[in-house]
Amino acid sequence: MPAGGSDRSALEIRSVLEIRDLSYRIGDRSILRGISLDVRAGETVVLLGRSGCGKTTLLKCVNGLLTPAAGEIRFEGQPVSQWNLIQLRRRIGYVIQDAGLFPHWTVAANVGLVPKLEGLAAADIEQRVDLLLETVGLPPAQFARRYPRELSGGQKQRVGIARALAADPPLLLLDEPFAALDPITRYELQKQFAALQKGTASATAKATLFVTHDVREALMLATRIVLLKDGAIDVVASPAEFLGARAGEARAFLASLEQEWNFD
Questions:
Q1: 102 or 13, higher pLDDT
Q2: Alpha-carbon separation of residue 221 from 114, 191, 202 (angstroms)
């Protein structure tokens, strides 16, 4: 074995998601340019950037919904291009802004969908659903038999997170999941999500790729912040490092924090 080979293997095991020199185009327009990024188990990598910078496009490439023009994405060590797309998507939890729940299914049925597709026994599915609903703050005796129309926006997002976790996926993709909520509910869910990732409310923290344009949310939730600008990575930093970043785009986001409470 070449020198350093064992260290490289260990790194590959820890890296649930590896993105190398990824580009995506629509016609002559570049949406993503030369993206390289790893996401490891237990960390939350926040993709921060303005609308149109390529954040959601990157998530869709990871999930096999879009095909890159160049570069490679590896999930659990295997190129996404070689995965069966159905199996790939069952191995990745995906949470979108409006939760995307099936309106004519109960909360329990929505959360238990992927475990059911994976062939788990009904009793095991019920136990898993109950555990996850408790984890996200929705007591199953009160919420399992409700329908999405009977839930508030924050409750729907909690169900969406529970559903994303239902098959115990190694990777979570979250596309501005709290953006449409009122400030108080949003803050409560941010705190709850942070607790889940730290393992205080969940047995296993996940590798997470989280999209937002809210710098406050990024600073609160991220292990690392990846700032995108015009489809390329502009800054990669821990939250503490980001606060001291000198790049122009980072300073523009940080200035929004400084201006938030300026009523002059």
A1: 102
A2: 26, 8, 16
Average pLDDT over the chain, rounded to whole?
88
Residue corresponding to tokens 């959601």: 56
Say what the pLDDT of residue 8 is.
40
Q: Give 194-251 pLDDT, tens digit per residue.
A: 888 776 444 456 899 999 999 999 999 999 999 999 999 999 999 999 999 999 999 9
What is residue 262's predicted lDDT score, i.e. its pLDDT? Answer: 54
Q: Is residue 115 within 8 Å of 128, Cβ to Cβ?
A: yes
So where are the chain's domains? 5-91+206-260
Query: How far apart (Å, rounded) are the C-alpha atoms in residues 19 and 33?
Result: 12
Tokens 């108080």 found at: 184
What are the angstrom distances between the C-alpha of 152 and each of 43, 99, 117, 155, 248? 29, 11, 27, 5, 39
> Given the DSSP bridges, would you call strands 224-229 and 44-48 parallel, antiparallel or unpaired?
parallel
DSSP helix/strand/coil, 89: helix
Distance CA 104, CA 110 (A): 9
> Which residue matches tokens 């609903």?
133
Please state, as a whole number, how many other Cβ atoms lie within 10 Å of the Cβ of residue 152: 11
Looking at the predicted structure, is the pLDDT value of residue 6 above 90?
no
Distance, in Å, from the CA atom of 99 to the CA atom of 95, rounded to the nearest integer, reads 6
| Span 92-116, pLDDT tens digits | 999 988 778 999 999 999 999 999 9
Indicate the class that CATH gives domain 5-91+206-260.
alpha beta
- For residue 202, give every residue at least 6 positions away whose Cβ sits within 8 Å of its Cβ, in sequence order, or none: 135, 165, 196
State the amino acid at position 206 in one-letter form: K
Report the distance separating Cα 63 and Cα 72, nearest Å.
Answer: 13
